[in-house]
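FORM 12-B: Structure-to-Sequence Request
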C-alpha cells in the first residue's frame, strides 16, 4: 500500500502544471488570416457615423447655408425659403438674390472670429464705392439690388428715418463676390486692419512687414527651388546614411564623453577657484573689519551649491562612462542596422514615397473634416439672438453631441492613417528581411504590403489607433482646461495639470512605440493586436539594452541628419539670395525654406526610423529562434551576420580567458590532494 501511495503521490501534479502555455512559434510570412475582425466592424460603423453626420448637414440645409450663404432672418440666398415661426421677414423667395451682403463688413469680433454685422441677400454686390444714400438709391434703381433691409423701398432710401439702422454704413466699399461662397467682400481690405493687427501682432512696423512680404514675392522661384533641394537631399541621405552612420555615431560618442568630462572639470575648477577666492577675501576682511554673519553665510551657500553641482556632474559622468563601456558593443549593432536600412531603401525605392501618400491622405481627410465642421456650424434649429437680433442656427439636444463625435473622428482617423503607414512599411521590411533570396522579392513589396493590410489587418490598425486616441483625448482636454484657466488657477492646480499632461504625453509616446512593434509582429506572424503587442514586448524586454542604445544613438544620428539637411538648404539659400543686398529681405524666405526643409527631413527620416525599428525586431527574432546550423539558418543580412560573428568571437575569447584563470587554482588543489594522499594511507 505504501508503494502505491508513493507512486500515486509522485504521479500527482498540480493542475496548473498540466496546462502549459504553448511557446510562440514565429513563422514569418507562412500563414495569413484576418486579425481583429470585430474592431474592423466597429471602425466601419464609426465611419458610417461620420458619413451620416455629413449627410445630415446636407439634408437639413447646413451645407447649402454655408455655400450659398444666409441672411440675418434665416433665409438661404439663391432659393425659395420656408417661413420660420417667430422670425419676421423669413420665408422669402431669394431665387434672384444669390449674394450675401454685410451692412457693416468691418465690424468683426476678433475673439469669436466672425462678422457681427446684419447680413442680407442681394442680387449684385456694389461694383463701386457708394458714399451717400442717394448713391444707394441710384444703385438700387439701375441694378435692381437693394442694399438696405427688405422692408425699405429702394426709391425712398434718402428720406426714411430707419436708414441709419437698416442701411449699410457709409461709405459702402466696392466689393467682389467670393468665387464659391458668394459673399460680397470689400476690394480694399483696409477695414480689416484691426483684425490683421490682431493676427500679425509680432510686426510693429508696417514698412518692415511690406519689405518682408516683398522679399518673399521676389524670391518665390528660389524658395521653390530650395524646397525641392531639401526634398532631394532627404531622399539622398536615406540612401547614403549607411556609409556615414559609423562616423556620425563615433563622433557623437566622442562629443558626449568629452563634453561630460569638460563640464565636470569646469565645475570643479570653478568650485576650487571660488573656494580659494572666498578664503582670501574672508581672511582679508576679518583683518580689516568684521564681516557680517549673513554675508559669510551667503558666500558659503554659493560654495556649497558649486560643490553639489560638481559632485552631481562627476556622478553623472561616471555613470555615463560606465554605460559607454558596457554598451560599446551594442553601438555596433546600431551601425549595422543603419547599414541594412540603407540597403532596404535601395531594394524598395517606393518606401521613399510613403510620406507623400500619407500626407496626401491626411490632407484630403482634414479638408473633408473642416468642410463638415463648417457645415455643422450652419446646421440646427434657427434661434434669434436677443443681443443682436440676428438669427443663428444651433444644434440643440442630442444633436449637439455630433460635434464631439466629429472631433473624436478627427483624432481616430488621423491616427488610423498614420498607423496604416507604419503597417505598410513594416510589412514591406518584413518581406525583405525574411526573404533569403532577394532576387525572389515581389515586384512591388510596398503594393503587396498594402494589399495584405487591406485584406487582413485593418482591424489591427483600427484597434491600435483607437488606443492612442483614448490617451490623446484626455491630454487634449487637459491642455484646453489649462489654457482656459491660465492666470486663474493657483500654482498647485497648474502644477498638477502640467504633470498629468506630461504623464499622458509620455504614455502616448510609449504606446506609439509599442504599437509600431506590434504592427511589425502582426506583419510577421499574422496574429491579432494584443498577441502581437505581447510578443513584441517580450522581445523588446529581452533586448532592453540594445533597444536603449538604438533609440538613443539612432535618434540622435537621425537628428543630426535633419540638422545637416536644414544647414545645407540654408547655406544654399544664402548663396542664392546673395543678390539681395538688404538682409531683411532674406529673413522670411530663409525661415520658410528652413521650416520646410526640417519638415521634409523629419517626414523622410521618420520612415527611416521605422525601418530601423522593424529591422531590429526581425533581427531579435532571428537570433532567438535560429543559430545558423542546418535547418535553422539565419535570415539576416551580411552586415548583421558579421555583427553576430564578432559577438560570438568576443564571447568565446572571454570564456577562454575565464577558463585559463580558473586552471591554476585547479592545479594547486590537485597537488595538495596528492601531497596529502601518502599520509592518509599510512594512518
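FORM 12-B RESPONSE
SEQUENCE OUT:
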Amino acid at each position: 500500500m505504501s508503494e502505491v501511495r508513493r507512486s500515486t503521490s509522485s504521479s500527482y501534479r498540480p493542475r496548473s502544471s498540466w496546462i502549459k502555455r504553448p511557446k510562440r512559434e514565429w513563422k514569418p510570412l507562412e500563414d495569413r488570416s484576418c486579425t481583429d475582425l470585430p474592431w474592423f466592424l466597429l471602425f466601419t460603423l464609426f465611419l458610417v457615423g461620420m458619413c451620416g453626420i455629413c449627410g445630415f448637414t446636407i439634408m437639413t440645409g447646413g451645407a447649402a447655408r454655408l455655400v450659398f450663404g444666409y441672411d440675418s432672418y434665416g433665409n438661404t440666398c439663391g432659393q425659395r425659403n420656408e417661413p420660420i415661426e417667430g422670425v419676421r421677414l423669413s420665408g422669402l423667395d431669394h431665387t434672384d438674390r444669390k449674394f450675401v451682403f454685410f451692412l457693416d463688413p468691418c465690424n468683426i469680433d476678433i475673439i469669436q472670429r466672425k462678422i457681427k454685422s446684419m447680413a442680407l441677400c442681394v442680387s449684385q454686390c456694389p461694383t463701386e464705392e457708394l458714399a451717400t444714400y442717394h448713391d444707394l438709391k441710384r444703385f438700387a434703381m439701375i441694378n435692381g439690388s437693394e442694399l438696405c433691409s427688405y422692408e425699405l423701398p429702394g426709391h425712398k432710401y434718402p428720406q426714411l428715418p430707419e436708414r441709419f439702422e437698416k442701411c449699410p454704413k457709409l461709405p459702402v466699399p466696392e466689393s467682389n463676390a467670393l468665387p464659391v461662397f458668394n459673399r460680397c467682400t470689400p476690394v480694399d481690405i483696409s477695414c480689416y486692419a484691426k483684425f490683421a493687427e490682431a493676427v500679425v501682432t509680432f510686426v510693429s512696423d508696417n514698412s518692415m512687414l511690406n519689405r518682408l512680404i516683398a522679399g518673399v514675392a521676389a524670391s518665390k522661384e528660389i524658395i521653390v527651388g530650395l524646397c525641392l533641394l531639401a526634398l532631394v537631399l532627404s531622399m539622398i541621405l536615406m540612401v547614403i546614411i549607411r556609409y556615414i552612420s559609423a562616423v556620425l555615431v563615433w563622433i557623437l560618442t566622442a562629443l558626449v564623453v568629452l563634453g561630460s568630462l569638460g563640464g565636470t572639470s569646469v565645475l570643479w575648477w570653478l568650485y576650487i577657484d571660488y573656494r580659494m577666492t572666498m578664503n582670501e577675501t574672508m581672511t582679508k576682511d576679518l583683518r580689516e573689519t568684521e564681516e557680517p554673519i549673513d554675508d559669510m553665510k551667503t558666500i558659503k551657500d554659493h560654495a556649497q551649491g558649486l560643490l553639489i553641482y560638481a559632485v552631481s556632474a562627476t556622478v553623472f559622468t561616471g555613470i555615463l562612462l560606465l554605460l559607454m563601456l558596457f554598451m560599446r558593443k551594442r553601438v555596433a549593432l546600431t551601425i549595422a542596422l543603419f547599414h541594412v536600412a540603407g540597403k532596404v531603401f535601395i531594394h524598395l525605392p517606393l518606401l521613399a514615397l510613403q510620406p507623400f501618400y500619407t500626407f496626401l491622405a491626411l490632407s484630403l481627410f482634414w479638408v473633408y473634416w473642416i468642410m463638415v465642421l463648417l457645415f455643422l456650424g450652419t446646421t440646427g434649429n434657427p434661434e434669434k439672438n436677443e443681443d443682436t437680433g440676428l438669427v443663428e442656427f444651433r444644434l440643440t439636444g442630442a444633436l449637439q453631441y455630433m460635434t464631439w463625435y466629429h472631433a473624436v473622428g478627427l483624432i481616430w482617423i488621423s491616427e488610423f492613417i498614420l498607423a496604416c503607414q507604419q503597417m505598410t512599411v513594416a510589412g514591406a521590411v518584413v518581406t525583405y528581411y525574411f526573404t533569403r533570396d532577394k532576387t525572389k522579392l515581389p515586384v512591388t513589396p510596398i503594393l503587396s504590403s498594402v494589399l495584405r493590410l487591406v485584406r487582413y489587418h485593418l482591424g489591427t490598425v483600427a484597434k491600435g489607433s483607437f488606443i492612442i486616441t483614448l490617451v490623446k483625448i484626455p491630454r487634449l482636454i487637459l491642455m484646453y482646461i489649462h489654457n482656459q484657466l491660465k492666470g486663474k488657477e493657483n500654482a498647485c492646480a497648474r502644477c498638477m495639470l502640467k504633470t498629468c499632461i506630461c504623464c499622458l504625453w509620455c504614455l502616448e509616446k510609449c504606446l506609439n512605440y509599442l504599437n509600431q512593434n506590434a504592427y511589425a509582429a502582426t506583419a510577421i506572424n499574422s496574429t491579432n493586436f494584443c498577441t502581437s503587442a505581447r510578443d513584441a514586448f517580450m522581445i523588446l524586454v529581452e533586448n532592453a539594452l540594445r533597444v536603449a542604445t538604438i533609440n538613443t544613438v539612432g535618434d540622435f544620428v537621425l537628428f543630426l541628419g535633419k540638422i545637416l539637411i536644414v544647414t545645407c538648404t540654408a547655406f544654399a539659400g544664402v548663396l542664392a539670395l546673395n543678390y539681395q543686398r538688404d538682409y531683411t529681405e532674406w529673413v522670411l524666405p530663409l525661415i520658410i525654406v528652413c521650416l520646410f526643409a526640417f519638415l521634409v527631413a523629419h517626414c523622410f527620416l521618420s520612415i527611416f526610423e521605422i525601418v530601423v525599428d522593424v529591422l531590429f525586431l526581425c533581427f531579435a527574432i532571428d537570433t532567438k529562434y535560429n543559430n545558423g546550423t542546418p535547418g535553422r539558418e539565419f535570415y539576416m543580412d551580411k552586415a548583421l551576420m558579421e555583427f553576430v560573428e564578432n559577438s560570438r568571437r568576443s564571447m568565446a575569447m572571454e570564456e577562454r580567458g575565464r577558463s585559463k584563470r580558473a586552471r591554476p587554482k585547479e592545479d594547486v588543489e590537485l597537488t595538495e590532494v596528492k601531497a596529502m594522499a601518502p599520509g592518509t594511507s599510512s594512518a
